[in-house]
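ESCALATION

Customer reports they have been waiting on this structure for their group meeting. Please prioritize. Original submission:
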Amino acid sequence: MIQMSRAVAIIADNSTVGVFAALGFDTFQVKGPGEAAEALRDVARGDYGLVYITEDLAAELEEQVKSLRERTLPVVGIIPGPQGSRGVGFARLKDIVEKAIGADILFKGEER
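Update from on-call: job pushed to the front of the queue and completed.
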């Protein structure tokens, strides 16, 4: 029998986690890459099916995020931080689509 992971985790700064905590998600409030790395390790050992991390933290922890993405669970998503979107999440989606179908259907050769 396959055991389903139930929880969603959010790894972000104080201003970002507040909204998600109010919605009932498990939140990991961090003050920088060191604390975020520790939170990612905790999430990897936990019963999480999905973890969201802000773009700025994901950029600082690129290797650790990449390592998690090679696993089945948790699924890692990137969300904008308090500064707004830098396009990291969309760029990742573009890469996934290109690998899956073998063509760039999102930009059709245009650089963003």
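Sent to customer with the following note: The chain has a mean pLDDT of 81.
Escalation resolved.
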